[in-house]
Amino acid sequence: MPPEATWITTPLTADLLRGALEIERTEHGILPHRLPAAARAQCADGQLAMAEAQPSGVRLAFRTRATAVELDTLPTKRDYVGAPPRPDGVYDLLVDGRLTAQGSVTGGHTLTIDMTTGTFEHRPGSPGTVRFTDLPEGSKDIEIWLPHNERTELVALRTDAPVDPAPADPDRRVWLHHGSSISHGSDAASPTAIWPALAARLGGVELVNLGLAGSALLDPFTARVLRDTPADLISVKIGINLVNADLMRLRAFTPAVHGFLDTIREGHPATPLLVVSPVLCPMHEETPGPSVPDLGDLGSGRLRFVPMGDRAEVAGGKLTLRVIRDELARIVAQRAADDPNLHHLDGRELYGEGDATELPLPDQLHPDAATHRRMGERFAALAFAEGGAFG
Questions:
Q1: Which residue from 263, 275, 268 is spatially nearest to 347, judged by alpha carbons?
Q2: Cβ atoms of 127 and 73 closer than 8 Å
Q3: Nearest residue to 229 via CA among 186, 183, 264, 188
Q4: pLDDT in tens, 91-144
Q5: Deepest of 38, 258, 274, 388, by most Cβ within 10 A of its Cβ?
Q6: Average pLDDT over every residue of 150-154
Q7: Would you give the DSSP letter of residue 381?
Q8: How confident is the model at residue 160 (pLDDT cuts 50, 70, 90)?
Q9: What pLDDT sits at residue 5?
Q10: What is each CA distance from 381 to 71, 203, 210, in whole angstroms?
Q11: Percent of the chain predicted with pLDDT > 70
């Protein structure tokens, strides 16, 4: 930025944000939420609170002639006792839809998690700044995708030219997606590299991502959020969290899925609705949950999850991924007789046995960056192509 130029500070308002369902005013600025306050009030789970405030899929979107942009934020970093420090969250800068630059913000609050005791310690910190310079001349659309895995309060936006909210494209459909940490983006390289973001770009749609790490649990309040959020396309990816949390048995699972879909249909009676079953996870294909972290190699930065369930308990109603896939296929087939806009996708078409041989899950639970890429490309090819659920 030339030394004679003057920064322009633009107020951070909801019309500059996409992908957030609610904005909370804080001491420092604004905090994007992916679940509204009414939903958050119905569950005091710390994992859910952490996940929904991590802005996966949330981005600033504006039109400007600026060649330099500064964004002040107050991140909350996670630190695990006994593990090496985690890398700072990544901000992706898109200019006219193309990834142009990346950056990070150091400092901020720190949430120290002791996985052996389940305790948390919060240490306050100060805001930092991510800068993007030498942007192309002329009017352009800019998106700044916020870190998908780092709670982020937005403090200030500065540019060297005026900013206007990016105009909405009336022909661009809105895709509302719900899923687990895999949809949230766990272990993806950056916020535009999570599989739903990749699929949305390839499908030419606007993403609202309700991937909630550890929290795709058929919660009624989540179903109501999906019901009440405007969307042209909806998908729900169900299964892995129910197994690794060992949350319910088959007797409860079936009516819970029906109730979840019933609630969505109250607000979206004819919207294309795609039910996606779990991707392959070898440790839980035949073995029920729960799964727990193996902390033996945590000091070297390696974390693995191991199943603790007993296969003999499946006969008594415990859930495995195979059980869930079979039941979801049956439920969708039953309902589709009266609901022609309801569709089913076997998650193993996104990541299956052949993929697991080539790209094994590093921690036995979450896909790596290359697998996110593959899943995004496959979902786009299956769902957005002619004849697909969203074609």
A1: 275
A2: yes
A3: 264
A4: 999 999 999 999 999 999 999 988 888 888 999 999 999 999 999 999 999 999
A5: 274
A6: 98
A7: I
A8: very high
A9: 61
A10: 35, 8, 21
A11: 99
- The C-alpha angle with vertex 91 and arms to 390 and 56, in degrees rounded to 5, equals 40
- Distance between CA atoms of residues 146 and 54, nearest Å: 9
pLDDT per position as a tens digit, 209-222: 999 999 999 999 99
Q: For the chain, give the longest Cα–Cα distance.
A: 74
Q: Find the angle CA(113)-CA(153)-CA(203) to the nearest 5 degrees.
A: 95
List, for residues 265-316, the tens digit of each pLDDT value.
999 999 999 999 999 999 999 999 999 989 888 877 788 999 999 999 999 9
| Residue whose token pair is 């991924």 | 321
Question: How far is 244 from 318, CA to CA, in rounded Å?
Answer: 11
The strand pair at 69-80 and 128-132 is best described as antiparallel
**Per-residue model confidence as pLDDT tens digits over 315-354:** 999 999 999 999 999 999 999 999 999 999 999 999 999 9
pLDDT at res. 257: 98
The rounded distance, in Å, linking the Cα atoms of 138 and 200 is 27
Angle at alpha carbon of residue 133, lines to 128 and 139, rounded to 5°: 120
Cα distance between residue 390 and residue 233, in whole Å: 7
Tokens 């969250």 sit on residue? 89
Residues 6 or more apart whose CB falls under 8 angstroms from that of 145 comprise 57, 58, 59, 91, 92, 93, 94, 190, 191, 192, 197
pLDDT over 90 (residue 65): yes
At 267, which amino acid appears? G
Cα 388 to Cα 188, 233, 273, 341, 345: the distances in Å are: 26, 12, 11, 11, 10
Distance of CA 388 to the CA centre of its chain: 22
- At a CB cut-off of 8 Å and minimum separation 6, what does 45 contact? 215
Q: How far apart are CA 58 and CA 310, in angstroms?
A: 40
Using CA atoms of 234, 238, 241, 244 in order, give the dihedral in degrees to the nearest 10. -160
**Helix extents (H) in the chain:** 37-40, 46-53, 181-184, 195-203, 220-228, 240-244, 250-267, 282-285, 321-336, 353-358, 369-379
> Are 27 and 3 a contacting pair, CB within 8 Å?
no
Angle at 277 between CA 334 and CA 212, to 5 degrees: 120
Structure-block tokens of residue 94 = 């898109």
